[in-house]
Sequence to fold (272 residues):
Amino acid sequence: MTYSIAQAAERTGLSVDTLRYYERIGLLEPPARDSGGRRVYSDADLTWLDFLTKLRLTGMPIRMMREYAQLRYRGVMTAGRRKQLLVEHRADVLERIAELRSCLDVLNYKIDNYDQILRDQAARERAAATPEEATA
Amino acid sequence: MTYSIAQAAERTGLSVDTLRYYERIGLLEPPARDSGGRRVYSDADLTWLDFLTKLRLTGMPIRMMREYAQLRYRGVMTAGRRKQLLVEHRADVLERIAELRSCLDVLNYKIDNYDQILRDQAARERAAATPEEATA
DNA sequence: GTAGAAGTTGAAGCGCACTCCAGGTCAACC
DNA sequence: GGTTGACCTGGAGTGCGCTTCAACTTCTAC
Fold:
């Protein structure tokens, strides 16, 4: 299967502008062109773009993605370095998850606090509405 | 306890410039000033800054942090809305963690792949070093 | 054969969250 | 009382990751 840039954008969830941008900065090897000079993306291109998207989602900086891409072009002998990049990045992702979890604890604590405050407020309002009960 | 801007920066892990920036954009109520016009941060200021830092770490956009800050200035009657903001943001954080986990799976899969490739490479190198074994 | 949609290029622009700079004030120490 | 260093202000600059623009070409359908 082959895809126009619009189809590739649709399938990867990236914009056509981003596809051209990724090509320009060297994340993507220039795809084939049709007789009219238009880009023609292959399934392999899309697979690679999907993987890039995963890396982006995890916050890998573009310069690191570029290094990875360049190594890939240079073939199987760069597998060691590529693995190393991914292992390093995985450590970053794990750290990030741990960080988010710890912030989540704070968030939960705060939300519980607000629950308490709001319950107290509601109780005071009920008391104000039925003042005869207030001293009971 | 009170703190100079440098001490506040040190304790919160933010830069001096960022502290002034946060104040300028309304994340932080202008702290007290000493006789020479210098900022004097209180413990309450630092506590608030710590919380802001948590929110930033979880990727809350500054415009949302600002909304939260403005509500806080307006007092206890805004507790409901503030809780709502935190609850919404908590959902975002949970989603983000799930996303990272799913990317982590891809990362692990890729790394396993590289392990396999590298093992095969090593095996071929051993075979090349002792060719008489290659046919055994 | 002409309109309109989709594609091309190089370059400029944007939103975010800071970060840095120039030029000045103030307080503390020698 | 002179120097040093921390702090002040308003405003400009930065890096990242796109996004938009202008001007042009090409294909498709009527």
